[in-house]
Structures are given as C-alpha cells and as structure tokens.
Amino acid sequence: MVKRILHDRRRSSRLDIPLKIEQRLSRGGELLKALSSDISGNGLRFQLHRYLKKGEKLRTSIHFPSDPKPVTAVSEVIWCKEKPASGKKMFDAGIKYVKIIPRDRDRFIFLFCETMINYFMARASK
C-alpha cells in the first residue's frame, strides 16, 4: 500500500511504499532482507540491522507485488546512519541504482509507473 509521494531536492519523486527488497553484499556474500521506506527511479531507502559503508556495492532485488520476478540492479550505498535508540540497533540506508540491465530497467519503469498510477487512482476515489 502506497502511503504518499515524497518530494524534495532529488531528481525524481519518491513513493513512500513498503516493497520487499533483498541486498547481497558481494558475490556469495551475506543476504540482507528488508522493506523499502521509499523508492524512486534513481534509488531507495530501507532499514536494516547492520551498518553499510558509503560506496559499498550491492546486488539489489526489488519485489513489486504485481510481478513474481524481482527487478535486479547493482546499487551503491550513498548513506547509512543509525536510527535513534529503539531497543535494537537499527540503521537507515539510502542506495542509488548504478546498473540495471535493459530488460529489468524496462520492467522497473513499468512497475514503478503502475504503482504510481494505482496510488493516484486510489486517492482520486476517496
């Protein structure tokens, strides 16, 4: 369920939507599962229990509800900071997509646009 569209100084609008994502740290490395906090055509933000270094490369899989196959991308950590004390150590991280194969890029654009259209249609019907 899309909560809202966020606007700021970034190049594209972000959707405040919880999508399942998976991050692989390196070839054969640790797999981190999370939910996106917001997503755009250029990157996304998510929470995790581990610190990620700025500049670290990740293999990212984004799961859209309307498609059983995830969109995959090579991503780069732009920032990572610890969240205020909440019992467990938690971090917010922002990544940008560095490389998406053309087939997945086309799917990403379609699925992202479909999600935005559904959001606006749901708002218009209220």
What does this structure look like?
- With 126 residues, the chain is α+β, with helices and mostly antiparallel strands.
- The protein has a single domain, classed as Beta Barrel (Thrombin, subunit H).
- 18% of the residues lie in helices and 43% in strands.
- The strands form two sheets. Strands 3-4-5-8-7-6 form a six-stranded antiparallel beta barrel.
- The protein is globular.
- 19% of the residues are buried.
The structural class is alpha+beta
Strand adjacency order, main sheet = 3-4-5-8-7-6
Cα distance, first to last residue?
15 Å
* Major sheet details: 6 strands, antiparallel, barrel
Topology:
Elements lengths: L3 E3 L7 E3 L3 E5 L6 E9 L3 E6 L8 E7 L7 E12 L8 E9 L2 H23 L2
Antiparallel strand pairs: 1-2, 3-4, 3-6, 4-5, 5-8, 6-7, 7-8
Keywords:
single chain, 126 residues, alpha+beta, Thrombin, subunit H, 6-stranded antiparallel β-barrel, two-stranded antiparallel sheet, 43% strand, globular
Task: Give a short overview.
By secondary structure, this protein is an alpha+beta fold. The protein has one helix spanning 102-124; strands spanning 4-6, 14-16, 20-24, 31-39, 43-48, 57-63, 71-82, 91-99. It has one domain (4-124): predicted glycosyltransferase like domains (Thrombin, subunit H), CATH 2.40.10.220.
